[in-house]
Design goal:
Layout: H1 5-9, E1 25-31, E2 37-43, E3 50-52, H2 54-57, H3 67-72, E4 85-86, E5 92-98, H4 103-108, E6 112-117, H5 124-128, E7 141-150, E8 160-168, E9 180-185, E10 190-194, H6 199-210, E11 217-220, H7 236-248, E12 252-255, H8 258-263, E13 271-279, E14 285-297, H9 307-313, E15 323-332, H10 346-364, H11 368-375, E16 382-383, E17 389-390, H12 395-412, E18 417-427, E19 432-440, E20 443-448, H13 457-469, E21 476-480, H14 497-515, E22 523-531, E23 535-547, E24 553-563, H15 570-589, H16 606-609, E25 621-625, H17 641-658, E26 664-665, H18 669-673
Parallel strand pairs: 1-12, 8-26, 10-11, 14-15, 20-21, 24-25
Antiparallel strand pairs: 1-5, 2-4, 2-6, 3-5, 7-15, 8-13, 9-10, 9-12, 13-14, 16-17, 18-23, 19-20, 19-22, 23-24
Helix pairs in contact: 10-17, 13-14, 15-17
Length: about 675
């Protein structure tokens, strides 16, 4: 059994709400009930220990983007508490402290907010056609960037042009455990414990927001019950809890309710596209051109400012092309801010590209398998027209194995939809990861800057260290998500944690090996920051889909093959792939965040948001190819590749089964019954 699993199976996991703190008080947040308006007046609660409004805080949330975008874009940061206006249902307006966890709910009833309601804009199209949401801005377009490269004039030589519009609706991340934090200011240091994917990112965000030196902030996380990207950045509640603790000199605890989670930042996807693929009748793909719009929500928040451009950069996928030209726009709406969600641009780009490849193949009358194979990038490395550098990997081997499976399934399931898609997954390794290895008389302590939230890092890092040092795994302890015991770290997102954290651990162990002969008798400590560029992981997915006359979709067969570099822990690799695949399929069939014309969410529970459960899971056949990557461990990330492949493979299989084209996720049951 994987070491990480046993405590959780036995009910001994320690999550943030399990932590009992002496003299703790509870933070509550009163949120906007309307999607857009001006605040005329606020009636404050009389029984709270402390009340905070904008006048007490006057802090905006950090935004992560390149300097050019921050300077040239129409950037509107989110206020920690509403600064006289509200711009989405659920936006924090007022915060207060309560001595008792349940009394806080009664105190919240004392708060009254008088609004002057304004017309909300709840879609990209609405926002592009109306006046700016925010005062002192020229439009609702926040960022507008064109990515282009290669021989643009080649499009004039194209014999065939296909175009498709696609809308990928918003999705709630919905980890099992919502967000949570405990903060205590001891007069000199801010002690922070919570449910985080990156303790170092939380530290840096709090440092920027509060004006504290990073050395004055210690951030830790124990067990984290899922994240899917949602727990990478900081949130207004983290800053409010910190300010409150500084004011009352007591520990402050905030635990997000599920209802709060459904309307809080950050929400995934929210992407619209209109893209053309250019090619010739012989099956050659020449290039791609089009526009990507990302629904930012009401504010620039964390990394949503860069989402559209990131999707655009990935649109050439695993295929050789002569050119690419894509305009990417970030658009404000009166909805909660979007942010990273499992795949964070990769699945969106794959769906856009793979459906275009299918359309192109149909127009020229050739099998899409032939078109994919003809245009596949070489195994020896490739630079895309937009400048992405693909490291050498097993593209041809992955494709050939998937092709064999596809041909068998096409013969076996003649009356069903059978698809094969190819992906090239960008693994976010840069800039690197930190690790420290301490040895004391044969016992090893490992500290890594990653933030596990369902991954088996304890097992992974222990195995790597055991093999490198020749020490049994039972003498190795692993600590993650802790800024107190490690100088520098990054965190877990972008499929990077096992690969980068593992490479940092291996490098530290190798440094120790160079310095001492008898490790069992040594007392030594090595601290490293292992640096790497991003790598790319090829994968292919084969889906078989059956759609009955009621519009119910079944997946009788699913196969995925991924070049994982070097397998570190097979059970973990396959677990990540299977979970990711179900999430990708869930986006096609069930998951969506819908709002009415007033910006009110039409969901109030996980069930309403369409999250898949165990009854909707299906059998998956997995295969791994091992072509080592350039990093120390030779591995490649797999945390998001399942989602990337599943989204496009099942979407296309449904199109083949129904002989109909779709333009939106999820594909609704009524669309499938109107055939």
């Amino acid at each position: 059994m994987i070491r990480d699993d046993l405590p959780k199976i036995l009910g001994k996991g320690k999550y943030v709400d399990d932590i009992e703190v002496k003299d703790v008080v509870y933070l509550y947040v009163v949120r906007s009930s309307i999607a857009r308006g001006k605040i005329n007046d606020i009636s404050l609660p009389s029984r709270s220990l402390l009340t905070l409004t904008w006048d007490d805080v006057k802090i905006y949330m950090p935004v992560s983007a390149d300097p050019y975008t921050l300077k040239s874009g129409n950037i509107v940061k989110m206020p920690v508490l509403a600064d006289g206006r509200v711009n989405f249902v659920g936006q924090p307006v007022l915060a207060f402290l309560s001595e008792d966890r349940y009394e806080g709910e009664d105190i919240a009833e004392e708060v009254g907010i008088d609004y002057e309601e304004l017309k909300p804009l709840i879609s990209i199209d609405d926002s592009l056609q109306n006046e700016p949401i925010h005062p002192n801005t020229k439009s609702n377009i926040s960022t507008d960037k064109v990515l282009e490269g290669g021989e643009i004039s080649a499009k004039e030589k194209a014999e065939i042009v296909v175009e498709r519009e696609m809308e990928q609706t918003r999705i709630i991340s919905n980890p099992i455990e919502p967000k949570g934090i405990i903060v205590y200011w001891d007069g000199e240091v801010l002690h922070v414990t919570g449910s985080f994917q990156s303790a170092f990112r939380i530290r840096d965000d709090l440092s920027e927001s509060l004006g504290l030196n990073p050395e004055k902030i210690i951030v830790k996380a124990y067990n984290v019950g899922g994240g899917f990207g949602n727990k990478v950045p900081s949130y207004p509640e983290y800053i409010l809890a910190s300010i409150a603790s500084m004011k009352v000199k007591r520990p402050v605890k905030w635990i997000e309710t599920r209802r709060e989670h459904l309307t809080n930042p950050t929400i995934g996807r929210g992407v619209k596209s209109k893209v053309k693929l250019y090619g010739n009748r012989d099956g050659e793909i020449l290039g791609i051109e089009g526009t990507i719009w990302n629904d930012l929500g009401a504010f620039n928040y964390t990394r949503n400012t860069t989402t559209a451009a990131f999707i655009a950069s990935l649109l050439t996928g695993p295929y050789k092309m002569r050119f690419a030209r894509v305009r990417s726009l970030g658009v404000f709406t009166n909805l909660p801010p979007t942010g990273p969600y499992r795949g964070a641009g990769r699945p969106e780009a794959a769906l856009i590209l793979e459906t275009l490849v299918e359309d192109f193949s149909e127009v020229i009358g050739k099998d899409s398998i032939y078109v994919r194979e003809r245009n596949l990038v070489p195994d020896t490395g490739y630079i895309t027209p937009l400048g992405l550098k693909y490291d050498p990997a097993g593209y041809s081997l992955v494709f050939s194995k998937a092709k064999q499976v596809f041909n068998k399934m096409k013969e076996k399931f003649r009356e069903k939809g059978v698809s094969l898609v190819m992906t090239s997954e960008q693994v976010r390794l840069s800039p690197g990861e930190g690790a420290k290895v301490k040895i004391n008389n044969g016992r090893v302590k490992i500290y890594v800057g990653t933030g596990p939230h369902g991954q088996a890092y304890e097992e992974t890092y222990s195995r790597i260290a055991s093999q490198a040092l020749g020490i049994p795994m039972d003498k190795i302890e692993v600590y993650t998500n802790d800024t107190e015991n490690l100088k520098e770290g990054i965190g877990s997102f972008g499929s990077r944690g096992g690969t980068m954290g593992g490479s940092a651990v291996l490098t530290a162990c190798q440094e120790i090996r160079k310095k001492v002969k008898d490790i069992t008798q040594s007392n030594i400590e090595v601290d490293v920051f292992y640096r790497s560029e991003d790598v790319f992981s090829p994968g292919a997915h084969v889906a078989v889909v059956d759609v009955d006359d009621r519009g119910i979709v079944r997946v009788p067969f699913y196969y995925a093959i991924e070049d994982v570099g070097k397998v570190l822990v097979k059970e973990e690799v396959e677990g990540q792939l299977m979970g990711g695949i179900l999430q990708g399929v869930s986006q096609v069939l069930w998951e969506s965040s819908e709002y009415d014309k007033q910006g009110n969410p039409l969901f109030s529970s996980i069930a309403d948001a369409g999250v898949a459960d165990s009854t909707q899971a299906f059998n998956v056949e997995l295969e791994e190819v091992e072509v080592p990557s350039p990093v120390a461990t030779g591995s490649r990330g797999v945390g998001e590749s399942g989602t990337t492949g599943a989204l496009s493979s099942v979407f296309i299989a449904i199109e083949k089964a129904t002989r109909k084209k779709f333009r939106r996720t999820p594909i609704k049951m009524e669309e499938l019954t109107q055939l």
